Amino acid sequence: MAALVSLAAAAATSPLGAQGRGGAPIRVALIEGLSGPFGNTGEAVFRNLVWACERVNARGGVDLGGGVRRPLQIVRYDSKSQPQEALSALQSALDDGISLVAQGNSSAVAAALIEAINRHNEREPQRQVVFLNYAAVDPVLTNERCSFWHFRFDAHADMRMAALMSVLKGDAEVKSVYLIGQDYSFGQAVLREAKRQLAVQRPDVRIVGEELHPMARIKDFIPYVTKIKASGAQAVITGNWGNDLTLLVRAARELQYEGKFYTFYGNALGAPAAIGEAGVGKVLAVADWFPNAPGEASRQLVEAFRRRFPNPADDYIHLRMQLMIEALAQALQQAARNGGTGGPDGVPPALAVARALERADVTLAGQRLRMRADDHQAQQPLMVAVMERQGAPGVPFDVEGSGYGFRVIQRLEATAAEQPHTCRMARP
Predict the structure, then answer these.
(1) CA–CA dist 394, 22 (Å, integer)
(2) What does the H/E/C string look like for 237-295?
(3) pTM higher than 0.85
(4) How many CB atoms lie under 10 A from the CB of residue 173?
(5) What pLDDT is stored for residue 72 in this prediction?
(6) What is the pLDDT of residues 369-384, one digit of tens each?
(7) How far is the CA of 278 from the CAs of 34, 159, 210, 271, 389, in angstroms?
(8) At 364, is the secondary structure helix, strand, or coil?
(9) For the purposes of burial, counting CB atoms within 10 Å of the CB of 253, is it exposed (0-12), middle (13-18) or buried (19 or more)?
């Protein structure tokens, strides 16, 4: 597979020029679905990572010591959201001499990449690779299947579910729920954890329906919502994302389903516009951060992003991706001090970068992220928010020009969001 390298992106992420003050850009391979049914989610990631790199480059790039500073650059590889395509993309990135890989939109893809990178790094210790995961949240990836080379910067599904349950346990109106999700490892994990936590937090709530559907294949969710309505469920719990979420909530609006939606990703990528007025006060989402998070630093971040990407369709900010790139820059600088720059692509060796990433501790816009070395699971505050009209108290910003935004109703500190792990990491 040929790399889809954007010259515009290269220029945008490298204001120092191709050579900067000491060498070519440090390249990060973005292996993501950039076409097909989830192409919009991949493009949202790309914009966020480009913007994050621009911030690092604007202050001079990554300081590798000895007066050498190099910019960061994102190189695109389209996985089409398929594991086999992602493995081909990984090989292309390796052939291109890239030792830093980023991916997140699909835990199935992430699992395949982790296995392939583990094998490659053992087989070729001189060309080892570090994997930066910003969104693949199947808990097993930092538990039973944890890897020294893999770092997750998003809260995993069990952490997100616990945050949602911290709100649902106080929602006395909800007495029955319907569970629906995508039929792959992540979707299955969400439903499994929803059942477990409901039994602990709200044993009085009845599960009146449970369903897994094919991922990215359903064009009409009317039959599913018909069953949800017939079940009498007062709320839906779902981990759906991308078009699978947008089409689900659109069908709910068409059938005038009046229950609540407890979601992982209901705050953007078309979902608020799809559900419209029917979602006010009824659609909840969990995230590490929301554009309407209180504080001046948060407001300034949103305004800066919108100046960079003024098209409302591009309005989806992932603060954790900004923090991930900050952590990478921090780790590269530390690794250069500890291990030199003798790795592929002239960057510090992957082993030195991984050891530095284990100690990552960065802050941006009031949000602090630190990496837990034991399992390489990032620890940071989590928030739960409810959909409201823009302009309502606590909702200065809408989402994607929809006229609807999300008001933060619960914030869990990192210590409250943290969960135990079962990782038994093999270290080189």
Answers:
(1) 46
(2) EECCCCHHHHHHHHHHHHCCCCCEEEECCCCCCCHHHHHHHHHCCCEEEEECCCCCCCC
(3) yes
(4) 8
(5) 98
(6) 999 999 999 999 999 9
(7) 31, 28, 23, 12, 11
(8) strand
(9) middle
